[in-house]
Amino acid sequence: MTAQIIDGKQVAAEMRAELKEKVAELKTQGVTPGLAVVLVGEDPASKSYVTAKERACEEIGVFSNDNRLVADTQEEDLLALIDKLNKDPKINGILVQLPLPKHIDEDKILLAIDPAKDVDGFHPVNVGKMVVGQDAFLPCTPHGIIQLLLRSNVKLEGAEVVIVGRSNIVGKPLASMLIQKSPTGNATVTVCHTRTKNMAEHVKRADIVIAAAGWPNTITADMVKDGAVVIDVGVNRVEDATKKRGYRLAGDVDFEAVKEKASLITPVPGGVGPMTITMLLYNTVQSAEKTLQ
Question: Considering its fold, how many domains does the chain have in total?
Answer without folding.
Answer: 2
